[in-house]
Amino acid sequence: MDALDASVPAISPSRPIGASVATFRALMGSGFRRWATYRQATIAGTFTNIVFGFLRCYVLLAVAAGAAGGTPGGYDARQLATFVWVGQGLLNVVGIWGWGDLADRIRTGDIVADLVRPVSPVTAYLAADLGRAAHALLTRVGPPVLVGALFFPLATPSRWQTVPLFAVSVLLAVIGSFACRYLVNATAYWLDDARGPLMFWTLGSGVLAGLYFPLRLLPDWLTVTLWVATPLPGLLQTPLDVLIERDQPALQAGLVALQAVWAAIMLALAHWVQRRAERRLVVQGG
After folding, report:
1. Are residues 25 and 19 in contact, defined by beta-carbon separation less than 8 angstroms?
2. What is the mean pLDDT of residues 134-143?
3. Is 56 within 8 Å of 100 (Cβ atoms)?
4. Cα–Cα distance measured from residue 96 to residue 232, given in angstroms and rounded to the nearest whole number
5. Distance from chain centroid for Cα 27
6. H or E element: which one contains 40?
7. Biggest alpha carbon distance in the chain?
């Protein structure tokens, strides 16, 4: 939210849709420019993702080599390698970790500046996060995928609908991830310090989102429960399964539809929590 222009028109039903779209685009551009300034961090983070990509890939390929039929969870070696390397690229696009801006502003009292702006905090932070995701898409996806393709055989889509469905799934993953992170940060309205919830989120989200291993390596009943009862598989597992065509087209579309439902639910919940917090907000240190 730093350096956002508070003079932009409000996003509201009472204003022309063109003004609201222009405001949203301006906020997205601000988020993109903010992350574009961290060039050294981008390079270092990409290198780290590549190193961990090798570790994850060799572990999962070893699991595949030792599994009956060589297809643990229904994945062959090419699909597992693609799952790992594209997942390493998408990690920063989806951005499940490392965001505590809202919690910090609540703790310091700077959140009051966000509340007097003409744009809802949830909408403003969402636009900025989409700008961040666009920057990561341009800078963080290509290198891990290229390195993975150089050292491992990767699976490529064989159905035309996979690519557009994957693009939609990634967008929904970004929105769902933002809503989850916003809710975790918003606990600071009641706790004053959200470091505990943020640490819990960091530890749990990677496992339950499918970052460390495909969730389909778990028992079927647990996998289905996680998919239906939580939004977390939609953050990484769903887009990656769509890309490697783990399922038939109908099930692919169904998983993306479920992902869209969870993204809408979590975003609506973020708006509701924000409204509740504003009613009882006590500014700390301001």
Report:
1. no
2. 94
3. no
4. 10
5. 18
6. helix 39-66
7. 62
Q: Please state, in angstroms and rounded to a whole number, the distance separating the CA atoms of residues 275 and 160.
A: 43
CA distance 191 to 205: 21
C-alpha–C-alpha distance, residues 101 and 182, integer Å: 9
Query: Which candidate, 252, 177, 262, places its Cα nearest to that of 227?
Result: 262
Taking the C-alpha atoms of residue 282 and residue 195, their distance in angstroms, rounded to an integer, is 18
**Amino acid sitting at position 216:** R
d(CA 80, CA 68): 15
71 has a pLDDT exceeding 90: no
Q: Which residues contact 266 (CB under 8 A, 6 or more apart)?
A: 176, 179, 180, 183, 231
Predicted confidence at residue 261, as pLDDT, reads 97
209, 96 Cβ separation under 8 angstroms: yes
Using the predicted structure, report yes or no on whether residue 99 has a pLDDT greater than 70.
yes
Tell me the three-class secondary structure of 55-108, residue by residue.
HHHHHHHHHHHHCHHHCHHHCCHHHHHHHHHHHHHHHHHHCCCCCCHHHHHHHH
Closest to 128 in 3D by CA, of 23, 17, 245? 23
Distance, in Å, from the CA atom of 57 to the CA atom of 83, rounded to the nearest integer, reads 9
Q: Cα separation of 200 and 87, whole Å?
A: 21
* pLDDT at site 8: 43
Decide if 234 contacts 146 (C-beta within 8 A): no
- What would the DSSP string read from start to end of 123-167? HHHHHHHHHHHHHHHHHTSHHHHHHHHHHS------STTHHHHHH
Can you tell me whether residue 257 is helix, strand or coil? helix
